[in-house]
Amino acid sequence: xxxxxxxxxxxxxxxxxxxxxxxxxxxxxxxxxxxxxxxxxxxxxxxxxxxxxxxxxxxxxxxxxxxxxxxxxxxxxxxxxxxxxxxxxxxxxxxxxxxxxxxxxxxxxxxxxxxxxxxxxxxxxxxxxxxxxxxxxxxxxxxxxxxxxxxxxxxxxxxxxxxxxxxxxxxxxxxxxxxxxxxxxxxxxxxxxxxxxxxxxxxxxxxxxxxxxxxxxxxxxxxxxxxxxxxxxxxxxxxxxxxxxxxxxxxxxxxxxxxxxxxxxxxxxxxxxxxxxxxxxxxxxxxxxxxxxxxxxxxxxxxxxxxxxxxxxxxxxxxxxxxxxxxxxxxxxxxxxxxxxxxxxxxxxxxxxxxxxxxxxxxxxxxxxxxxxxxxxxxxxxxxxxxxxxxxxxxxxxxxxxxxxxx
Length: 407
Description:
The protein is α+β, with helices and mostly antiparallel strands.
């Protein structure tokens, strides 16, 4: 089995997907835009060949370059778990007649307006939305949909370049700072708690399902520096006490409506105060922000390898233990400059040490990061526990008692 894997080293979790492919017996051909010498050793060791494509993000040009090269190598699969390159992978499959999702199917996971239109046609509850290309388009869409509303890129990932607008002036301000976005979506703002529905599928059937919740929702924590963003993976999403069944049912219906094939999916959905569940968006790739690691810590398995086994051999062998709830908190230092002081972590280690699964705060003296450009911020701490209330207590301690300062 020869697998061409686009972006084997970035984002960083892709390194473990590369490892997973090699560990299930695939011959891995890496494709990236940087020089091979720049690949980390833990990636190079798993690659049989590397193809550099400097114009990787020009889909047509990259496909024209890669198609003959991959045909000559006799590749069997083309995979990508990085949002900007999932359409390229699908286009190459179409050009070479390989198995896996077509470009049309992948477009339903990449183009947010196509996504919503297909789901609406299937009778699923999605936010009311319109595609916009100009400021006038956006103003007309705002008048039709009403405030509050969300402005977001059609082909974006996460909550980058995404704004809540409560007035026409706020929309004008958001348009002014998103001139670089060629196409956007104006959509209804859904007021509710935000969750994820994550899967590894084989021919559209979930072999593993995961549900997590954001604290607070990403649109909020991307706008306020003082917030410590957190995410919480549930031990057993099927537990009736958690009231997640309707979200899971929505997620499964979305997979069916979008004709999901084989691979990872990451979906976001809302639960309103009324109890109504509403679709947010979905990608045919894994979630970022260490969600994959959190799934591993929750279930004591290696889902990087199981994803690889799924795409290569259409088999998922690991059994989810469903042993732990997992929480991760991302910290942002107060002040500017270098990390000068960390308060509260020693106490947290003393109280919860055996339950800490990730301790990755920036060391003293390290320049602080730009919190607007990375969810990882100035480091993060992850904890797990079988009991929901205890895991929540640890998460709240990390949010409230742990503080970094920069000077």
